[in-house]
Please model this.
Amino acid sequence: MKVEHSRRSPSAPGPWPTFLRELGARRGHLPLLLGAVGAAALVLVGPQVPARSAVIASAQPRAIRTGAIRGRVDLRHVVSPAERRPNVADLGAADERDRPDRLRSVVYLEAAPRGAFDQTEAANAVMDQRNETFVPHLLAVTTGTTVAFPNSDRIYHNVFSLSKARTFDLGRYAVGRSKSVRFDRPGIVRVFCDIHSHMSGFILVFNHPFFTITDTDGRYRIDQVPPGTYNVIAWNEGLASEPKPIVVPDGGIVELEFALR
Amino acid sequence: MIVARFPRRVDGTRWRRSDAGGGASRAAWAYVWLLALGISTPARGQSLPSEPLVFGGGRVTLSGDVSATVSCGGGDEAAPASCREDFGFFNYTDYEHSTLHMLRLDVSAALRATRRMSVLLDVRSENGSGPRAYGLYLRLRPWLSRNVDLQVGRVPPTFGAAGRRTYPADNLLIGYPLAYQYLTSLRPDALPANADELLRMRGRGWLSSFSIGDPDADNGLPITSGSRWDTGVQVHGKGAVVEGTAAVTTGSLGNPLVGDDNAGKQVAGRVALKPLAGLIVGASAARGPYLARAAVLAAPAAATEDRSFTQTAVGGDLEYSRDYYLLRMEAIVSDWTLPLADTPVIELPLRAVALSVEGRYKLRPALYVAGRFDHLAFSTVRGTNEVAAWDAPVSRTEVGIGYAIQRNLQLKLAVQHNRRDGGRVHRLSIGAAQLLFWF
Model:
């Protein structure tokens, strides 16, 4: 369940305006400089429209057409059905509960393109506790996202994590109540219930928006990827693939398959 | 069961070593553990396995617990400082095993044959002994639409609450509540002839001896055993607010058995209310013969005619938790009857009252503090020269911290102070550390 974010254009200002601004600011001669550049252009190539257009185009941000990465993550290992520990000391059988969906994976860019770290808008997500299961079992969010953990069961739950990326303990709270945690550091956060050891979930926190969660068949698509060369990683239940290098062309779509053993 | 006798280390008397395991069984046990650790699917966020092993599409589930506990203590002149023994025997579950000097390995398994039928097993090894089946029973659910279960075999204890929380991961501290572990002087296989004999064994439940029945010294009985389960049939039903359990078993609260030794059955029941989230209020009762037939036959015939000698207990427990704290209380009153062989006559019933209060508060996500206060009191009997409680009253205060190195790898540190109004050792303070891991 990828959280919806408003994505900024990943394109950065081109080199020309920066250069000009720096030079003008240092010397206070920006008008002279512009005049000299214009004169030189006239002397060298004459007043031809195409050449002038080229200069203007490179002096302003070019409209970059983003691409996409799509494919499938094939889980070659046996996905455990996440059973309870044998409740030998209990006086009766435990209630039936929902099984977490462990077939979904996360696919993400190992390093984000320039400009991807400008994310400032806080996002919100929800990981429910329902029928002794975290729903969804897997969340992928950007840094700064606040995740709410409502309790939808009639029994207590106690969400906690000892992961380095975010350590927290929300204590015990009853049905209808919700507590939230803000995730400010990228990393993998494993979430548990202190009362029900069979409850676990994952929250993957990224400092860029170029990630997605697959469907249950493993299919995925990452959109709005700026053209460039990247390493892509697939991840499932703590198992990560080797980074796969790809080149995303301007406005193109790249197919990329993963096999997680 | 193999029973061997070994020389006593300290005072030359003898001890009983139950189920002396051979080297082969220990090796097999170690192999099972290594295999379990090796093939466990790790939750890759951690370096050790954290989830039970699942086979056959969920039909077989296997989990494990391992805990290592060490302690050092010292008290009055009869209990010099030592890291090898608890000279006061305050924490022994029998003559050989102290809960504070323990390497314990547990493997639990559930085999789900059908939706209505499962087999549950808990195999345990303590201090390197061969594995023993602590629990082994069949669980049946006759109606799939109703929360009613029938359990047959060596079943979890019906009575009380703490008896089902003796796994190290469920225990807030390191020691057990006194009612579930502390050994009184009463034995199932030997009887005091009179009140003087009973009073002589005050505070010596770790190695008690009487003149009727088995003449060898051996450990006495706790009020209710937290280290063994009884064998029989158990019915459990659960609703939204209330749940109830009834059981008929072979042994007694203090002396659970696999094979019957007196042709009598114990009847136990428990009702628990859960009126709101976080609150559990329970009441329990049990009654059953506890004396072995051999001990009864050894008593004078006039003292045993047409009588059964029972342990009868009632108990109440309460648990409340919210946010970062947890509070538990439990009280048990237990009465024993026994043949009156000689004068001065023992005033019956022999009563023990146990009270336990414990709490936990989480300071940080991986760190908590916990404390427990326990007290055992006993009814008085009149001997030739004194009137005193038939066993020495005991109090214990234990405080500690628990630190989670990772979710299923925990370090506990605790300090325990024991006081006893009788026996060789009256005061003993112990510092203990426990490292536990489970998957």
